[in-house]
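Sample A.
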Amino acid sequence: MKRFTFLSPAVAVTGAMSPDDFAEAARLGFKTIINNRPDGEEAGQLTAHEEIRLAREVGVDYIHVPAAKHEVLEDHVLDPFNDALATAALPILLHCRSGLRSTIMWAAVSAENGMSLDVALTSAKAAGQDLEALREELGERIQNQASCARLQRAAA
């Protein structure tokens, strides 16, 4: 398998996967693969349908939460991604083309779920993805999400 790195004790990230990588992921003990690549992003990439088949063949759960590069901090992507992380069998292997999108999405939902933004960014950097340039945008998203949650509780 291509290089993968752990973002947390139960979540790792890698780039694009080849057919042989699915058996290797299973051998390494991953129970779930979450794919964040949209189909058709690049010529010759595996489709979600092909990845589902490959994952099933080796007994690994598979979840597809596609995110175009400009969508990584959008609710319509992060909400299902958060749900997938919360319900998937551990350990989880995230993947996209390079691992960057998956790492950004992981950092966003981890910080929204209580991990400090500093810890999320430090974990991402240790995994080879420096997200410091996104600190302000991630911080604003976290504040907005917290404000929305307070309003919903007040309205209930």
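Sample B, a different protein:
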Amino acid sequence: MVYKSFWLVLCILTIVFLGCSKETQVINEETLFEQANKAQMVQNYGQAVDIYQRIIDDYPDSPKLDKALFMIGYIKMENLNEKEDALSYFNRLIEKYPDSDLVDDAQFMIESIESGKDILSKFKNKTSP
């Protein structure tokens, strides 16, 4: 009887553990960048910002946090017309990552916002054929 009880308990525990060990999809940082880019391409800017923010929150040691900060600032400035929020992201990038390749771009965006002029559109027009 004890032997049967042991096997019954063992079977139940096996079923419970197997049921709990379902693979969970782990979304890595690169996948999140791809998802944010896709959301941006289909003009789902709010979702893109949320995904970039998730990268910042979930991967605080990422070497690409400067890019996530810049992209949030860019989307907020260019697509969502949330210029004050954009400023905070550009400034955060400059403060936290002074050696980033994106610092000059962030400073350019800040100047554009602070001047109240659409410098970026003028720049695009000058560089278009």
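Observation for Sample B: The helical segments are 2-20, 29-41, 45-58, 65-78, 83-96, 103-115, 119-127.
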